[in-house]
Amino acid sequence: MRDGLSGELLRMDGASYGRYKSLAGEWRLDGGGVLEVVRAQSDPFAPPSRIAVHLGGEEAGFPAALTETPVRRRALASYLARRARAELRAPFRVDAGGQQVLDRASCQVGADGSVTLRLGAELPGRGRRIDGRAAERALCRALPDAVDRALYHDALDAKDVQRFVDTVEDTDALRRALPGLGLVAFVAEGAILPRASGVDDRPLGGGRAVPFTAPPELRTEIELPHAGRVSGMGIPEGVTLIVGGGFHGKSTLLRALEAGVWDHVPGDGRELAAARADTVKIRAEDGRRVQRSDVHAFVDHLPSGGDTADFSTENASGSTSQAASLVEAVEAGARVLLIDEDTAATNLMIRDARMQALVAKDREPLTPFVDLVRSLHRDRGVSTVLVMGGSGDYIDVADRVVMMDAYHPEDVTARARALAETPTGRTAEADAFPPVRHRVVDPASVDSAGRKGRSRIRPHGTDGLTFGEQDIDLRSVEQITDPGQAVGIGLALELAVRRGHLDGRRTLAAALDLLDRDLAAGAAGLLRVRDEDFAVPRRHEVAAALNRLRSLRVSGLRDAGA
Question: Maximum CA pair distance of the chain?
Answer without folding.
Answer: 87
